[in-house]
Amino acid sequence: MRIFLIFCLLSVTQLHAQDTVLLRQLMQTKPELFNTILQNRDSFRVQIMYTQIDRDKKNRPSFTDFGFHLNENEYFYPASTVKMPVAFLALEKLSKAKRAGIPIDINTTIITDSIDMIKHINKIQDNVPNRSTIERFIKQIFLVSDNDAFNRLYEYLGQEYIQQKLTQKSYPDAIIRHRLSVSRTEEQNRRTHSVTFLTNTGGYLTSQPPAFSKAIFPSFQTRLGKGYYAGNLLVNEPFVFDDKNRVYLKDFHRMLQTVIMPDAFPAKQRFDFTKEDYNFLYRWMSAFPSESESPKYDTSKVGDASAKFLFYGAAKGRAPKHIRIFNKIGGAYGFLTDVCYFVDFEKKIEFFLSATILCNSDGVFNDDKYDYDAVGYPFLKNLGQLIYEHEVQRKKKRLPDLSRYKIGY
After folding, report:
1. Residue 3, SS3 per DSSP
2. Which of 7, 200, 209, 229 has the most neighbouring CB atoms within 10 Å?
3. Which value, to the nearest 10 degrees, does the dihedral of the CA atoms of residues 35, 38, 43, 48 take?
4. CA 25 to chain centre
């Protein structure tokens, strides 16, 4: 049974429907690709959210949501997907500071400790292009999912600020409590260093002091698998995720929607961006590493779709330019996640699609033996292409005007 929740916003009728049948039916049309997933959806911990978009005469969107196995109580480790809301919050904080008259912007050098201070003053004096800036960090996050870039933005925002802002934007259950790819205690993750902004010649502009987070997070318990490695030692007990980051798939999905189509949501749910901010995000969420000059990537090692799981499966090589995917991926502990807005400018196709899957058939965590290549990437690739094919066939009353998202790369 479909449940329709209809409300009016800015004279636009938003149609939100949670359909739990369509995605299963679509996957059943290709049993050779999806039968294993459908028959083992619990062990794979698969969750999918798909949103169809229909436009009115003024190009305003209406949404219809479709879910598969969505369950807030079924934990998945979000890994690098948490970089998306943190990037949004960092850009928002910086943009608001600039509008308040503080002389900083996305190209201002940002440093976090005394060693960093010396290193970056030298870079400034030597006119080195790869200075630490909010612009560079956000580019790195969306182009190649850089962990250090995320940790720098975590320092700028702080754990408590992240929680407060996401709660204010209607995500009270979101938990982003630790840095990535570095080992820190709970107390260390609560502490952030001072952050200083410098001029292009190394002069002082402004700073914020060190902080200690007093955030109180929603509690949850998740123990998965039959064992895990602690260093070189195998521990024959389930792996504990209780102190890890957690964000529901539906919340990631909605966060992206509020950035891609902000006018369709109340102001309190949106990020406070200028037109320039939106254009910056649209460009770097959809750009390929080969289209970036600073930072510059070795395209023989970093493919266009390396950070595009849905539709491409993180394939190597070049990707067609008329298809753009505005997204953020995550992958760790055997979990793969992708949250995306998909656009085909030639066929006038657009949709939102988010999915997560656990690829850990041996049930052991921290052993670096995950089924990404055999299970995860093929599933996400096939799912993205399945929805794309469905959208090609889906009849629409009006084709969308997608010019807002057509960027000069």
Report:
1. strand
2. 229
3. 130
4. 27
Helix (H, G, I), strand (E, B) or coil at 63: strand
Span 331-371, pLDDT tens digits: 999 999 999 999 999 999 999 999 999 999 999 999 999 99
Question: Is there a contact between 136 and 130 (Cβ–Cβ < 8 Å)?
Answer: yes
The token pair at 201 is 């010649």
What per-residue confidence (pLDDT) applies to 202? 85
Give the residue-averaged pLDDT of 66-94.
Answer: 97
- Rounded Cα–Cα distance for residues 78 and 86 (Å): 13
CA distance 405 to 298: 26
Cβ neighbours around 45 below 10 Å, total: 21
Answer for the pair 215, 176: CB distance below 8 angstroms, yes or no.
no
pTM: 0.93
DSSP annotation string for 256-306: HHHHHSGGGS-GGGS----HHHHHHHHHHHH--GGG-TTTT--TTTS-TTT
